[in-house]
TrEMBL record:
It is an enzyme of class 3 (hydrolase). Belongs to the glycosyl hydrolase 3 family. The keyword Signal applies. It comes from Paenibacillus algorifonticola. Its EC number is 3.2.1.21. The keyword Signal applies. This is beta-glucosidase. It catalyses: Hydrolysis of terminal, non-reducing beta-D-glucosyl residues with release of beta-D-glucose. GO terms for molecular function: beta-glucosidase activity. InterPro entries: Cellulose_Degrad_GH3, Fn3-like, GH, Glyco_hydro_3_C, Glyco_hydro_3_C_sf, Glyco_hydro_3_N, Glyco_hydro_3_N_sf, Ig-like_fold.
Length: 770
């Protein structure tokens, strides 16, 4: 009720303000220029607003700014030219004060920042990328992480973030796979709800709350050939059941901002889709926030999708379809006023969009508390507490794929360990895309983690990079092999990189030292706009591993990467394989915790890893089919969805169906006993899958419909209970309505999508358990 009252009051205030605005001022509220271009940093750390920007503020021509605090090679903001936590807060205060004091109506600016895996500003905590976050299967821990991200961002004045990414991964060759939670819509929806609740909190006006923006709406992870922003080919029923499910659940959880996707679905660009933005989002789901475009998406309506012949037609299409704000602001600033003056667009349509933006500004408390405390920003951003959370989050999402002959965990009394590979000591390679420049020493690499785990005895840890990510260079092989020959175990860190050119130079393959050179080549093979035809290791990485294998030492492969890697030789010949994804700033320590048994691995895959790229797509929720295999091999994944090993063992027993109980909504309850039958305490992800044996539309063989992450001491047993209700049994029918049909189901509970106990369930025509 209190939240409803706040929203109603914000709506009244927005309506009163709207009535006083001119058309140019209204248009200004929908324009979001690039924030890093509006100022120049001075020698004392303060900023000077550009004259052009100050004039825009005086005219009320800027309602929002994107990335004032963002720093990376794309923005060309460096550690030298960027802003520290305290400086950033002071800069936003200065912009806000100028806007409110020098414009006619004193409307505050809405500051939007990127927070895919942490606040993308200098000094902020770099958490693991979303594909690792999903692999943790720990929504409560992720929610805690989102609170930390919100606290850091809001402390500097950022009020809205362009996260979470809710795209469903269909083809992992897509470079943005790392930004997603995985391939399953139910799991993504659970993380979506946690993100909204964690970022936004109970009150948007709170100093630790941040407006969440759901992206990319919609079908962006399902595009043609795994190529970024290409068309998505699917029917409306599948769109609703798979790709839209996480968005719907997030809207129901209270999300108030949505970003449109670059792609089109069946010829209709998402940025100008009245079906998606008005009919589904607003009318069907009751969404009452605002919609923002992705950067440059409006221009694509003219130059790309070519559904508009002019800029005026493009802005008309977008606004009438339900888009409200334009990131970059280029098309709105050039063409929106003329579209209205030409009679192409009504002021009433403009008013609807402006009202949505103003209402959120009031709800965020920007009129009452427009500035922030710079001292608090310096204390909150990159705090020790958040650093520890980043380490715990990374450890929970790292997945143990193989562990023959109990190679892991390593004993800390081991003699010498060789840490080899291009990702063994490359800080930016373990952070992922959408990362800011980092101070020296802030990022703990695998080498750092192993050295720290062994008490800092550097002579016990031998290091050599061996090779690079993409180059065919082999001059480092001899040094790497010599290090490995002296060691009692070999850890080789290989994979990929989403690191853009931060100017850190390259690594000398013989000495392992960082070298600054004008001829350094980018190692980036993943990230936004970096899509691949294959999923194999690049360069000479596989050859290096083969040479190390010849030494007959315990060989542990650590993948640090943003998308699945398909290398059958490594599957067959490595003693242990660890999938670390991009584990963030504390990734090296988290990996060492796993490798030396300080932490028992509990991560589970949220994307299926194929045996061969030709098997794609291999996502687990395949529909029933008579086709069983290709000529060369079957279509089963090398490592299925939900898979991940532990240093202990878990036994499942006594799966049964019980009455759900009068106090619980549901048809039944599925109950299973889980016991830690090993010698080490650890966490297990208990997964519930359901099969519908006959339905009015073709259904997948199995679908995830519940999961719990539980802790068990050795010998301890726990009873895990899942309520089977409408949400677990429903599907989208032929008329695009969510329905539950009577009939026979199979309930499956176990450790992955392929390893389950099974029990039948029958629902009567009256909708009761029978």
């Amino acid at each position: 009720m209190e939240k409803d009252n706040r929203q109603a009051e914000a709506g009244r205030k927005a309506q009163n303000l709207l009535a006083r605005m001119t058309i140019p001022e209204k248009i200004g509220q929908l324009i979001q220029p690039f924030g890093w271009k509006c100022y120049e940093k001075q020698e004392d750390g303060s900023i000077r607003l550009t004259d052009e920007f100050k004039e825009q503020l005086r005219q009320g021509a800027v309602g929002s700014l994107y990335g004032v605090l963002r720093a990376d090679p794309w923005t060309e903001v460096t550690l030298a030219t960027g802003l520290s936590p305290e400086q950033g807060a002071r800069a936003i205060n200065e912009i806000q004060e100028y806007a409110m004091q020098h414009s006619r109506l004193g409307i505050p600016v809405l500051f939007g920042e990127e927070c895919s895996h942490g606040h993308m500003a200098i000094g902020a905590t770099v958490f693991p990328v979303p594909i690792l976050l999903g692999s943790s299967w720990n929504v409560e821990l992720y929610k805690e992480m989102c609170r930390a991200v919100a606290m850091e961002t809001r402390s500097q004045g950022g009020a809205v973030t362009y996260s979470p990414v809710l795209d469903v991964v269909r083809d992992p060759r897509w470079g943005r796979t790392e930004e997603c939670f995985g391939e399953d819509p139910y799991l993504i929806a659970e993380f979506a709800v946690a993100a909204v609740e964690g970022l936004q909190g109970d009150n948007l006006a709170d100093e630790n709350s941040l407006l969440a923006t759901l992206k990319h709406f919609a079908g962006y992870g399902s595009t043609e050939g795994g190529r970024n922003a290409q068309p998505a080919h699917m029917g409306l029923r599948e769109l609703h059941e798979v790709d839209l499910l996480p968005f719907r659940k997030a809207v129901e959880a209270g999300a108030r901002s949505v970003m449109t996707a670059y792609n089109e679905i069946d010829g209709i660009p998402c940025t100008s889709s009245p079906y998606l933005l008005n009919e589904v989002l607003r009318q069907e789901w009751g969404f009452d926030g605002f919609v923002i475009t992705d950067c440059g998406a409006l221009g694509m309506l003219v130059y790309g999708h070519n559904v508009a012949a002019s800029g005026e037609e493009a802005v008309k299409l977008a606004l009438e379809s339900g888009t409200d704000m334009e990131m970059s602001g280029e098309m709105f600033s050039k063409h929106l006023l003329s579209a209205i003056e030409q009679g192409l667009l009504s002021e009433e349509t403009l008013n609807k969009a402006v009202l949505r933006v103003l209402r959120l500004k009031f709800e965020l408390g920007l009129f009452d508390r427009p500035t922030v405390d710079p001292v608090r920003a310096a204390q909150v951003i990159g705090s020790l507490e958040h650093k520890q959370l980043a380490r715990k989050m990374a450890a929970e999402g790292i997945v143990l794929l193989k562990n023959e002959r109990q190679t892991l965990p390593l004993n800390k009394n081991i003699g010498k360990v060789a840490v080899i590979g291009p990702n063994a000591n490359a800080p930016y390679n373990q952070l992922g895309d959408y990362t800011s420049p980092q101070e020296d020493g802030k990022i703990a690499t695998l080498l750092d983690g192993v050295r720290a785990a062994l008490g800092g005895e550097r002579e016990r840890v031998l290091y050599a990079p061996g090779c690079r990510i993409k180059e065919e260079a082999r001059e480092g092989f001899a040094t790497a092999i010599d290090c490995a020959r002296q060691a009692d175990a070999v850890i080789v860190a290989i994979g990929g990189s989403s690191a853009r050119d931060f100017g850190e130079g390259t690594i000398d393959l013989v000495t392992g030292a960082a070298v600054v050179t004008d001829n350094a080549q980018s190692e980036m093979e993943c990230g936004e706009g970096i899509d691949r035809m294959t999923l194999n290791l690049l360069g000479s990485q596989l050859e290096l591993v083969k040479e190390l294998r010849k030494l007959d030492k315990p060989l542990i492969v650590v993948y640090i990467n943003g998308r699945p890697i398909v290398e059958p030789w490594i599957v067959d010949h490595a003693d242990a394989i660890v999938e670390a994804w991009y584990p963030g700033q504390e990734g090296g320590h988290a990996l060492a915790d796993i490798l030396f048994g300080v932490v028992n691995p509990s991560g589970k895959l949220t994307v299926s890893i194929p045996r061969h790229v030709g098997q794609l797509p291999v996502y687990y929720y395949k529909r029933r089919t008579r086709g069983k295999r290709y000529l060369e091999m079957d279509f089963e994944a090398q490592y299925p969805f939900g898979y991940g090993l532990s240093y202990t063992s878990f036994e499942y027993s006594q799966l049964r169906i019980e009455d759900a109980g009068a106090d619980e909504e549901g048809y039944a309850a599925a109950v299973v006993d889980v016991r830690n039958s090993g010698q080490m305490a650890g966490q297990e992800v208990v997964q519930l899958y359901i099969t519908d044996h006959a339905a009015s539309v073709t259904r997948p063989q199995r679908l995830l419909k519940g999961f719990r992450k539980i802790w068990l001491e050795p010998g301890e047993s726990k009873q895990v209970r899942f309520v089977i209700g409408r949400e677990q049994l429903e599907f989208v029918g032929q008329q695009l309505q969510r329905v539950v049909e009577d009939g026979d189901f199979t309930i499956m509970i176990g450790s992955s999508s392929l390893h389950n106990l099974e029990v039948p369930l029958r629902i009567s025509p009256e909708g009761r358990l029978s």
